[in-house]
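Thread: Hemin ABC transporter, permease protein, structure

OP (GT): Posting the sequence first so everyone is looking at the same thing. Length is 341 residues per the record. Can we get the structure tokens written out before standup tomorrow? I want them in the notebook alongside the other entries.
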Amino acid sequence: MSRSRLTPGVLVVAVAALVAVVCVATLLGAAELGWDRVVAEVWAQLTGGVSPLSEREAAIVWQVRVPRVLLAGLVGAALAVSGAAFQGVFRNPLADPYLLGAAAGAGLAATLVVIAAPGVTGWVVGPLPLAAFAGALGGVGLTWALGRSAGGGTAVLLLSGVAVAAFLTAVQTFAQQLDTDTIKQVYTWMLGGLNTSGWHEVLLTLPYLAVAAVVLCLCARLLDVLALGDEEAASLGVRPGRVRLVVLLAASLATAAAVAVSGLIGFVGIVVPHVVRLLAGSGHRVVVPLSLVGGAVFLIVCDQVARTVVAPAELPLGVITACTGAPFFAAVLRRYRGRVR
């Protein structure tokens, strides 16, 4: 399909799917509260009636389930829309949100915090997500600086990302070897997860994602123009270099915010944009906004599986997305055989 504009019907279906998975994930969980009793609790909160849940059970709904479902939606939306943006900028269907060193920078920063400040409490926002956020942006900044010093261009930027990621990963490994007691905690974070303790993580992620989402949706039409080639885009009054810079900054901001609260969750930025292209069209005015919604749906479903399939234990969220995304990635790679460069 080559549809390049988002139709109201498609948007309504996407939003309806999101509302449906949010409701199901809120009603069902590892704690057996009964979906009908949860519905009665929500209705009681809306109407001022009497809730059938105890104080502890109501806290599970409003302080654990609801913020976790919302956080999963925000992280999934951030990673998916970033993946769509990276694929549009680099014109490469296999590009993902961690391409420019965000994952490596976040991993190094998280490792250093775990080693230097284990068990720090009392912060409004924990030091680990703050460090991961700064590290992700720092990794992207190093990649951008190296790419610019080497002459710029998308190919040079990609190679710079590979070099920066390799260097930061090596430093992280060295730091872990200096303090082997932290290896388990670091790897638990790197496998990805959404172990929220309330609404702090949601409030931390929301403003950054909102800014990035607005910028990327406004740039979606320009990404369609860039797909024609730089010369054609310039003849139409578009500045390719400026557009790429703005899109990469916005996508990196969204990725950093997601990594800060969830660790490293792979394949969302590859799977969701491709599913959107297959179902709704290939234009970025379709792919970018629907990736926001689709990413939220995808990760909420994956998180629901992660926290219920072996309850009361919990699977790492990154394992679920990898089991889903790795075969899909292989299929995408085969489909684009000879066209990926």
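GT: Both are above now. Quick notes for whoever picks this up: The chain has 14 helices and no strands. Residues 55-90 form the longest helix (36 residues).
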